[in-house]
């Protein structure tokens, strides 16, 4: 038990030292942490995002309303914080489901043998050839608008690129000495996956997940911009951008504030992803 605690502390210390010395990774983690904590805890200090103040409609940013108000007199700071929460919830949820589906597909393809893998590859090629945005739009038109339908619609084709990355990584590891040794000892495919392939694929999976989240944020924003995503009274960053673009000439803060935070989220995740990719490249070079 003490050895496990010691190993955990040692691993945590190494992780912190790497984050501290990698400026890009540190910047991304810091900014993203501040954003998430603000989105969680700051709403308690400001009015409810649905509450209207008709006498304060379309106020520019000021001491009372730091991000101004919209045409109904709603606090833009409260709505922006809600937008950050919803956009991250949708993007992270869709990406995690994509990774889980990609892992499941790759595992089944590897365990099923060459014929099964070839058949599954043909299926994914057909699905991958479908244009993603029109497919999402079609599904939302057929079924319903809302958070859960949007997440599910985004995962319909979103898992395929991730599945390809994971499966390619599995194939690369298949020829490694430790995998060949395990096969020579007649280890089962499940044992090889659990003990060798999955642990050695974890780094690329996390890196892919981090890089995929910004794309999911922009996808959600575009769908909401078209009016098929998050519906009032809720608001994602994409919804706020859609509402703000109509007031761009006279009330530009309604557009630029949510757009700014959308870019900040994207840059933060990309900084984290670049930092993790650098770490993976260093480890591969050492190997």
TrEMBL record:
What start-end ranges are recorded for coiled-coil regions in this protein?
A: none
Main subcellular location: membrane
Q: Which InterPro entries match?
A: BP-dependent_transpt_permease, MetI-like, MetI-like_sf, OppC_N
Which stretches are transmembrane?
24-46, 86-111, 123-143, 149-167, 202-230, 250-272
Name the UniProt key words of this record, in alphabetical order: Cell membrane, Membrane, Peptide transport, Protein transport, Transmembrane, Transmembrane helix, Transport
Which membrane topology describes this protein?
Answer: Multi-pass membrane protein
What are the BP-aspect GO terms? Answer: peptide transport; protein transport; transmembrane transport
Question: Looking at the UniProt record for this protein, which Gene Ontology cellular component terms does it annotate, in alphabetical order?
Answer: plasma membrane
Q: Which PROSITE patterns match?
A: ABC_TM1
Source taxon at top rank: Bacteria
PANTHER family (alphabetical): OLIGOPEPTIDE TRANSPORT SYSTEM PERMEASE PROTEIN AMID, OLIGOPEPTIDE TRANSPORT SYSTEM PERMEASE PROTEIN APPC
Family per record: Belongs to the binding-protein-dependent transport system permease family.
Protein name (record): Peptide ABC transporter, permease protein
Organism in which the protein naturally occurs: Chlamydia muridarum (strain MoPn / Nigg)
